[in-house]
Design a protein that fits this description.
elongated; about 20% strand; metal-binding; Nucleotide Excision Repair Protein XPA (XPA-MBD), B Chain A; 15 strands; alpha+beta; single chain
């Protein structure tokens, strides 16, 4: 006795079996579709169809030297339950919809014009809900390098990477030298907003620029004075040495005879220089 004999199926199991039966029926009907390229007396001749299977795909021999992929008929059915009487007993036939999946599309509203859009350059790369037609690539929507942003808005690396949320960027090849590292390009409007988060107001940012400029000037003056002082010392040292070598003349004292060596020595009265010599 099989496991299915005498078993009472649930509605869900009946619906699944009916779906499988309908799919099998449609598959069979698709295989029996008349070949559309060969006709005889105004009607299709299925006996002349030549179906060839290549690597799991079925093709139809057109007879003209090339193969055509076998067409498959797709039929859309609705999810209805049709009551059909047969032999005095009622049978439920369940027709199900096809297996297509509806993917919802999320629309964004442009902050500039208010129009709805699905995707844009600024939204994909920087998360800004601005459509492409409102993008101003030469204005506030322009891109700025990390180095320029740090110099102009007095930002540190932590302001880009650690402060929440981290600023998004795109990487581009360095136009000055391809061997250098890639540039990080940030959105100008996001950099300006981050600068306001750090400094509070534009007036404070301007004041910080002035303070740093003053510090640079003071440092520059100190460096210049140090270089000038070192230069004066070098010049005075060279003049002193030259004057000493050019003006000093030895003033020797009396000669002293060295009997063991049979020579004479005398010493300068000014610099204590001692000279040894022999007399003829």
């Amino acid at each position: 006795m099989s496991q299915t004999e005498g078993r009472v199926f649930t509605d869900a199991e009946k619906a699944r079996m009916e779906r499988n039966r309908i799919k099998a029926l449609h598959l069979r009907q698709a295989k029996l579709v008349a070949y559309p390229y060969r006709k005889k007396n105004g009607s299709s001749n299925t006996d002349q169809d030549s179906i060839i299977k290549v690597q799991g795909t079925k093709y139809i021999d057109s007879g003209g030297g090339f193969l055509l992929e076998q067409p498959v008929i797709k039929s859309a059915v609705t999810s209805e339950t049709i009551e059909n009487g047969s032999g005095g007993s009622g049978t439920d036939i369940v027709k199900v919809s096809n297996d297509a999946i509806n993917i919802p599309v999320n629309y964004e509203e442009c902050l500039e014009c208010g129009d709805a859009f699905v995707e844009s350059y600024l939204f994909s790369n920087f998360g800004e809900a601005i459509c492409d037609k409102c993008r101003d690539p030469d204005g506030r929507h322009s891109l700025i390098t990390r180095t320029e942003a740090k110099a102009e808005y007095l930002l540190k690396d932590c302001d880009f990477d650690k402060r929440e949320p981290p600023l998004r960027y795109i990487s581009r090849k360095n136009p000055h030298n391809v061997r250098w590292g890639e540039m990080k390009l940030y959105l100008l409007m996001q950099v300006e907003k981050r600068a306001m988060d750090v400094w509070g107001t534009e007036e404070e940012l301007s004041r910080q620029h002035e303070l740093r400029e003053e510090k640079r000037e003071v440092t520059k003056v100190k460096k210049y004075n140090k270089q000038m002082k070192q230069l004066r010392m070098e010049i005075r040292s060279s003049l002193f040495t030259k004057k000493t070598k050019s003006t000093h003349e030895h003033d020797f004292g009396p000669d002293t005879y060295n009997e063991p060596d049979d020579n004479y020595t005398h010493t300068c009265k000014t610099c204590s220089y001692t000279e040894t010599y022999e007399k003829m």
